[in-house]
Each structure stands twice: as C-alpha cells, then as structure tokens.
Design brief:
The structure holds two protein chains of two kinds.
Chain A lengths: L17 E12 L2 E12 L3 E5 L6 H8 L9 E9 L2 E2 L6 H6 L1 E4 L10 H11 L5 H14 L3 H4 L12 H13 L5 E5 L7 H14 L4 E6 L2 H7 L2 E6 L2 E7 H5 L6 H7 L5
Parallel strand pairs in A: 3-8, 3-9, 6-7, 7-8
Antiparallel strand pairs in A: 1-2, 1-4, 4-5, 9-10
Helix pairs in contact in A: 3-4, 3-6, 4-6
Chain B lengths: L5 H39 L5 H5 L2 E2 L4 E2 L2 H32 L4 H14 L3 H15 L6 H25 L3 H9 L4 H28 L4 H4 L21 H10 L8 H30 L3
Antiparallel strand pairs in B: 1-2
The chains are: A alpha/beta, B mainly alpha.
C-alpha cells in the first residue's frame, strides 16, 4: 500500500492491493477549480465512501476516473489517477477502461430498450451474440440486482417504463453485466424509496466480495452503514480520508468533518 | 361565500371574449383549405378516370390523360430522395453526434438553415449551371432531381438533427460509460429512438418537392413529350409544370381539365403526408420512454 502523499506511482509499482490510486488530482472547468489536492488509494474489495455537500467535486472525481472528461471539452484533469497501477490518462483504449468500471447515476437511466436488451447491451457491445449465453448473463445480473423476481415474466417490456426504484436496480444490473472490476455509484438513492435503498445496500454488501465499490453519497448514514473507509469532500477539496467509523466517533483530524457528519452544516 | 365579485365577472367576460376571438381566427384559417379542396374536388373529380391517370395527353393536350406527367413526378421525387436522404441523414448525424460545439459547427448550422430559405428559382439556376451545363447531364431527370435534392437537403438535415437531439443526453452518457464507442451508441441507442422522427420529417419535407415547379422547369421538365422517358438522362413531363401549361399556355382547354391535374397533384402530396403520419403512429406505439 502506498501512503497518501507518497511519490507518484510508477507503472512498475504493482500492488495487488491498490485498485485505484489518486495523486495530486486537480480538476478545473474553464480554469475554475472544481476539485484539487486529492491523494488516496482505494483498495481492492473495499467500499470506499465519498461524502460531501453539492459542488464538492464528487461527480467530477468519478468522471475523471473513467475518462468521461473526453466528452466535456472544458473539463481539464491534471495529476495522476491509476487503475490497476496503470495511469488512466495514458490509456489509448478508453473503451476497455470504461467497460471495466460500472457506473450508476443519481437518476435512474432505463434505456428505451426492453429490460432484456438493457442488460444484454454491454455483452453485445463486447461482441457476445449467443442467445443462450446472453440469457444466462441477463438472469444472473438481474438476480444480483434484486430485480429478477419482479420482471422475469416481462423481460420484453420497456426498461424505461419501470418504476424509479426498479429502473435504478435495472441500471445496477446493466452495470453488473459489464462484469466490472469496479463499481462507481453516484448518489444512487436520490430518486429511490427507502425500502429499495435498503435492498440495493444489501446487494452492495454482497458485491464487495467481487468488486471494488466507490460510493458517492449525500447521506452520511449510508456511508456509515456501508463504507469501509470514507473521504470527505468540501468545496473542491478532499478534507479528510479515514476509516469510516473513525469519522463518526470523533477520531477526526478536521473540525469541519465532525460538523458535517453530525449534521451541523451542509 | 362564492358570489362573483365585480373582478371575477370582468375576468369571466374577458375570458369568453378571447375564446370567441381565438376560435373565430381558427375558423378563418380552415376556410381557405376547405374552399381549395372543395373547388378542386367539385370541378376536378368528374375528370378523373382510369384513362385520365394512365394514358397520355392527346389533341394538343386538350384531351386524354396525364400519365407521362404523373410518372415523371414520381420519378423526379424518387431520384431526388435517393440523392438527398442518405447524404442529409449522414451529415445530420455528423453534426449532431460528432462535431464539436464550436464556431465552425455553428457557422455550418447557420449556413444550412439559410440554405433552406433560398428561393427555389435560385436553386433552379444553380441546377442549370451545375448539373445541366457543368456536369453535362443536359436537361434531364437526373439534373432536375439533383436540383430538387439540393433544395431539400437542408430540410432533411434539420429534421434529422432535431430528431437526434430529442433523444436525451443521459442515454448517450449511460452508453459511453459502459465503454461503447460513439458509433455503437448511435447505432444501438440514438438511431432506434430517433428513426420515427427522421422518417416522418423526411417524408413530410420531400412531399413538398412533388409540387415544386421552378427548380425543374429549366433542368429537366418538358412542356410536352410524345414518349415516356427511357433513362434518367431523358427529359420528362411533370405534374406541376403540366398544371401550369394546361392552365395558362394552351388555348381551347376544357375548363375542368386543369382542376383534375391539380386534384391529382394535391392527392399525391396528401397521400404521402398521411403515410408519414400513419408511420409515425405505428412506430411511436412501439417505442417509448
């Protein structure tokens, strides 16, 4: 493990533990800084929480990881992010990078395709045409996203016509169909009822055995329930990174973190 | 408790006045449509018969049918479609899905919109210069169709681009996040959801070209031809020009014949419009978000 503030990772420094390394990350839009001074490692099979109020730079951080900054010309990313010890800014095959990282958005995005085609889309993009194989993938992913029982009899109906909570689980199933090494969830529960939120949280606890999860959330209690370690972003800076429980039990280095987790601002 | 105050009464009177006024305006709008269609059907319908649609004109066009003109219009529109639709859709996809949003793209978009506003007679003269003379197609179906194609290109592009941009950005982003290329995203998510709008927009716009006269009269449409065209390098008769000819250029014309020609022309356009609406309803029933 490389401690925060260490020398930038070279590509030879292979560590099986570190899934994602972030060094001196600086993100700006039109020369206005959105996020700076981010230095931490995210380990394999951990749930890494990111909490913080709006405009803290959380979503920009996720976009920088899977190189979605390419679609936003005014977004500039400096510093270094490594995925599997490879500098993502040097990856030519960004499609390969993105297909290894599943993303779940704040608002559910059920594509206007059938439920089946929503989940089969990613395997198809990778060239999987065998219907039997696809059937297996679709059933497995929908089951793991706790949606299979509700939709197994109507896989041909439109994914975009499901309820909000179901669409969000469909989005998770779609992300899982990528067979991702890492899952990034951006405030997934914002448009989901509490019961569905709990079901998805249970799903995430199961998934951590296989994938690394970055959980961006505006619910501090959600981070406390799920995350092994948590980072606190505020006004475009990473204020603190630590074991989640420490952030809640007073072992914090920064008073602002304590104020935020105890609900005194934000 | 619920008695109307003077203010309530004033508001109510005003609301009734406006409903009446706006309704009257709408009625006035329908009047010319009803009058035109009514006159055409009343005076033109007696002329329409199997012979009228499927035989050529005789006796200096004062008798016989309009088959060469009907066939000519269909040919002109078809060739124009083949030329303009693939090109227009391709350009629209590039402009909407690939081109960066910068001053150059905006200039091109502005140019396309302006091109749609160029009067058809200007397109006609361009067609003469470019296709008839420079490319040496002569006055022919090809030259006339290409002129029509150039004229419809901007509307095809605009209709397609609007359909593409009606597809929510979130769908594209979800797809890109999965590792799809831009083309995979277009092919699997954007196009299937935009195709309804593209098809109907294209049909609607192209049906207009069936009635155009100026762009074809110098480039390929003829006053009268004894024979049907054998290839796209021949001239052809066309309904729109034929209507002009029989209405104004031939002495001793039976009064009802021009109305018959007009009725056939307008029926063709209405038929294409209904087709496009039916297609839209059918496809919309299948796709939804």
């Amino acid at each position: 493990m490389v401690s925060a503030g260490a020398a930038p990772l070279s590509e030879e420094t292979v560590s099986s533990q570190v899934k994602l390394g972030v060094r001196d990350l600086h993100i700006s839009y039109h020369h206005v800084t959105a996020l700076e001074g981010v230095n931490f490692d995210i380990h394999e099979h951990e749930i890494f929480g990111i909490i913080g109020p709006a405009n803290a730079g959380k979503t920009s951080f996720l976009k920088a990881i899977n190189r979605m900054d390419m679609f936003t010309p005014e977004m500039k990313v400096e510093g270094k992010i490594t995925f599997n010890s490879v500098d993502v800014s040097r990856i030519r095959n960004v499609y390969g990078l993105r297909s290894r990282i599943g993303v779940v958005f704040p608002l559910p995005v059920g594509l206007p395709l059938s439920i089946y085609d929503n989940v089969a889309l990613s395997p198809r993009l990778r060239g999987q045409k065998n219907r039997a194989e696809l059937d297996v993938i679709v059933e497995r992913c929908l089951t793991r996203a706790a949606l299979w029982d509700e939709v197994k009899d109507r896989l041909d109906s439109l994914g975009s016509m499901l309820s909000g909570g179901q669409q969000q689980r469909l989005t998770i199933a779609r992300a899982l169909s990528q067979d991702p090494e890492m899952l990034m969830l951006d405030e997934f529960s914002i448009a989901v009822d509490p019961v569905t939120t709990m079901r998805i949280e249970d799903v995430l606890k199961e998934l951590r055995k296989e994938v690394t999860i970055i959980l961006v959330t505006n619910l501090v209690q959600q981070a406390r329930r799920l995350a092994d370690r948590t980072a606190f972003f505020l006004d475009g800076r990473c204020v603190e990174v630590g074991v989640t429980e420490d952030l809640f039990t007073g072992e914090v280095k920064d008073q602002r973190t304590r104020d935020y987790v105890e609900g005194r601002f934000g | 408790m619920f008695e109307a105050t003077p203010l309530n009464q004033r508001n109510d009177t005003r609301q009734k006045l406006f409903r009446f006024g706006l309704g009257t305006m709408t009625g006035l709008l329908i009047l010319p449509v009803v009058l035109i269609l009514g006159t055409l059907i009343y005076k033109g319908a007696p002329v329409i018969s199997f012979e009228f649609l499927f035989t050529g004109p005789t006796k200096g066009m004062t008798a016989g049918g309009i088959f060469p003109a009907l066939l000519g219009t269909i040919l002109l529109v078809l060739v124009a479609l083949i030329a303009s639709v693939p090109l227009g859709i391709a350009a629209a996809i590039y402009l909407s899905e690939y081109a960066a949003d910068n001053w150059f793209t905006r200039t091109i978009n502005l140019a396309i919109i302006n091109l749609a506003g160029v009067p058809s007679i200007v397109h006609a003269l361009f067609g003469v210069g470019a296709f008839v003379i420079f490319f040496r197609f002569g006055t022919s179906i090809l030259a006339a169709s290409l002129t029509l194609a150039i004229m419809t290109l901007p509307v095809v592009i605009v209709a397609t681009r609007e359909s593409l941009q009606a597809v929510p950005m979130a769908f594209r982003e979800a797809c890109w996040n999965m590792g799809a290329t831009r083309w995979q995203t277009i092919r699997r998510v954007v196009l299937p959801n935009a195709i309804t709008g593209i098809l109907t927009g294209v049909i609607l716009e192209v049906s207009r070209t069936a009635g155009e006269t100026a762009p074809i009269m110098f480039t390929g449409a003829a006053f009268f031809l004894p024979l049907l065209p054998q290839s796209v390098f021949d001239q052809t008769m066309a309904l729109s020009l034929h209507l002009f000819v029989v209405s104004t250029q031939v002495p001793g014309m039976p009064e009802n014949l021009p109305f018959g020609v007009a009725l056939v022309l307008i029926s063709m356009v209405l038929l294409m419009n209904s087709l496009s609406i039916a297609l839209r309803m059918y496809l919309r029933g299948k796709k939804k978000w």
